[in-house]
Amino acid sequence: MASSFKSLASGDATSTRTLLHESIPVTGSIVSGTYGGDATALGSEPHIKTYSHGMFQSVYDYPHLSSSANHIFDITAGIADSSALSSSTTSQVSKKINIYNQMAQVLMGYDETGSVRLFDEDGDIIAGGTKLKECYFVNFSRILTKDEIKKGSFEMQVMTADGFAHGPASGERLIITDFSGSDGYFVNSPAGEYGVLYATSSTDVDAVLSANRRFAVGLLFYQAGVAVLSGSIFSDAADGGILNNSKGTVTFSPAGATVTGFNTITASTNDVMADNLRNRMYNLQFNNTTELNSTIYFCRVNNSEFNYSANPTYLSTSSGGPSEIVIKDGSVGSDPHSYITTVGLYSADNELLAVAKVSEPLKKDPSNELTLRVRLDY
Amino acid sequence: MSYYKFTENDLFVNFLDTNPSCKFDVYNSQIFYNNRGEVAGAFTTNVPNVPAGHISLYELNVDRTADDTGLIFPFITKDSSLTTFKTVSTSDFYSTDYGTDISGATYPLSASITREYFDTNHFATMRTNNEVVINDDRTEHLGIPMSLQGGDTTGDGLPDYSTVDIVTSLGVVARSSKDRFDRLKGLLSSSHINALKSSINSKSFMSPHYQYSTTFSTGYSRDLDAVPVNLISVPSIFYGSEIERGTIELKYYLTGTLIGQLKDENRNGELIQVGPEGSTGSGSVAGIALYEEGFVILTGSWDLQTTGPSADAKLNYKNTGTAVTSSWLYFAVGANDSIPTDGHGADTRASASYSMLFSGSNEVPVMTMLTHAPKGQLNYSNNPTYLSRSTATNYYSSTTSSVIYGEPDLPVVNIVSSSFSNPTASFAKETYISKIGLYDENKNLIGVTTVAKPVKKTQDREFTFKLKLDI
Question: Taking CB atoms and an 8 Å limit, are A360 and B83 in contact across chains?
């Protein structure tokens, strides 16, 4: 308990912000195939949680019945009411439209007429342009994204082979990144900042992308932790997608279906759509950001201050005479000194709010002055 | 948006005291926490990627390896705030370029109980060993003593040794006094039990057993620097603020039979042998507990098994080949104390097992806020769908020479439920409260509370929402 207090002057406190990052690698093997083995039906893997409402699917990094499992993301799909697919969709059509509208109203907001804005392909809402009306939504868990996804760090590799296999099978795939996110992000969303996702190249020898160029294929909302992926990543140019016509539209499950690519959504539930994306996810990685806000208090100890202690052992009365400072060793003429072990931060009403400890006691006597830098993180 | 100020009776802070129960079982150098065994994962041998008996901070990388899946790890980018990890040395940090990512830690970070054994006269032995180290250093450096710089001490109060008085040792290594000092720091040892001396003595008002060095009224003397001591450390992540008083219970088993049980019956920190009934040492104090610091200090050296088929059985507790009888000094042998698992010999340590139970005590300060929605208020919404735009008039009204902007006259949508589709119910102001925002004195939004489902608010209804915030 302090017996003397020293007020902090206006220049003795300053606030800082530190950004702490984490690297989050999620290989496709965790998302698909690792648990349960190939014999397990899709969606029945123990680390995949499906729901009776069938609106989305949850992916865990370990069988979700274990308390050790962490929820890593949800997958769902939606279509805009104005999409060409809405009239031909026969499975969960209202749910898919509602999902799109819900995601869009939270992430894109409303226009001047009170209508929900559609996802814009290039983020330039005023200029209009192409809208993303058929989308996958990947909602990352807060435990992974923390305060936000670090801009420019997102990368997802998606296989474009027709085959439908567990695990990270090699083969032709797209690399989807927010490579312009660090300096080209948008701020016109009510849910924070977002960047455009680009399918930059294929990694295999076959040119998967039409003309082997870069395509805008979605949006990444950094603070919300949501990736919006256009269904065009699974369709060829002839079907309105980005894949090379020679490559052709990806055939989703079941093989040989009459509808292919993202159009599978017309006859499939969202669980099936989630399985389709999960089993084609080769790799996913990003860095997250945690903001550490700090206030630094410079506690200045002048030469004539804090050379005395209120510690009960500081004085000795064993001789029966007047109290003596123990550590002066009976030398009356020497200066008093103390050892600083703790700095207490008090409110204006002298209520102890916080305590800072030094790693080892600091000797304080009239011949020295100290400035103790106390950092309070919150 | 309407704002309301909290009144004096709308805000109060109280504490929620939580008491997590912890149980550690130790058997043949394996630790088990709360009856959880090893669970194999697809990539790791033990989910959540820490040894059994350990707890994982953050619980990330539960079933990952660097090779198979990659590991989540933290990093920081060096900038002008000069913030870095504690594991990064000052020299490494300053030699790193600005804008470079610094990684100083890996997940998972884990914690578990640790046992340390201090043998008879351990403090004197340690001091002798340290003197030998210092003398060897002097001999190795041609008998030249270390010298100080101009000032005697550094700003931290440590000896300020010279960095220029280079001496080439017998080992042909050139070192300054500062180099020798830094090297010696790594070679010297210290006593963890001696480091607790002040903490132990400060509790001596509760029991004379808390005297670090004392002579009891019976004439028996005890000095924790000299007697054998079994120190068990419990990290605070297991208990929170402190171990709840009176909850520590230690059980010592030999070939499955309970041969000793300690409890703090008087709730004063004395660990008294309470079982089994009639056992040797029953009623004696075998040690003390430091509840706030998370330590159990055991000194009971009597033979715990003097009767029955295993009477006076000696086990290889010290892993030296010399078997000794069971006593509290060997409680929890193998708990992160470098003593390995044992085989099947007659004196195997695998014959003994140990159990430690306690409850933690963790106070969570909770702020409770009462927010009121009075009658006749909060009956309007800024939600775009609250107004009907279909009947809106033009934004502009034209006159012959100018255009005048006017707010559209928008009626409130009537959402009052009716039993009939037509006619609709009479209009009434009706909103649904879905969120409560908390603002600071400058009207910055600092918190949001969302109700489980929207609450219908009409003009003649009033509500009080009780908000709780852990602080």
Answer: no
